Amino acid sequence: MLAGRHSIGAGGAGGGVFEFVGSRTFTEGSTSTFTIPLTTLTGGIASAPRTGDLVVAFIGQASGGNDDVPMPSEWDELARVQGVSGNSSDLYVIYKTMGATPDTGFDIVGGLASVQSGLSVAIFVYEGASTAAPVFTTANGDDTVLCDPPAITPTVAGSIVLSGGVGAHTEGIETFSSSAFDDFLTVGVDEGFRDATIGVGRFAWTSGAFNPAEFTFSASDFRRFSWAALSLVIIPE
Fold it and tell me: If we measure between CA atoms, which residue out of 82, 64, 36 comes closest to residue 192?
């Protein structure tokens, strides 16, 4: 669920336009090979990434704790964060600046091979973003599904914070909610036992530290759940 368009406008150090292109979600269950699409973006200025656009993907998995999902080699991997309980939560954050022929999707090959392992994805695309590796912070938690994304302090005027995470649980297709962001994207997958809900918000930073509150969950919490979270800063080029 996405609450409206968030336009940033002009103003990067390079004199270009820093603009939200769009976002989307995706879910997948227990399978070894599949493609995560980058098309049908909503909420921004385009329905797919263009040349020079920065794509950031938050990929959240619920598993038995022994899966290591292989990320595509042509993307940069920012971090892997894990929360371990009865249901393990694994968050992978990757990013890529699109070349002359922008990607329409990317493949996960050999991942999610274990039975009842669900995956939820949130994708964000920006025009005019820096190609430098984003600054980020991480956090995780056990015995609760309630993601509490870590604080982060940008230093460049006009920066955008993406902050969120995955919760591993057994409640089926459920969602997160948060009022801390300008826009919030969330989706859940039901894989029979190990279900994954992801929630990621966008926030236009002005000053000081940004520290979003713990997410609200649409179902009951339980001590054998877990979560993994990351906050990152996207700056104008």
Answer: 64
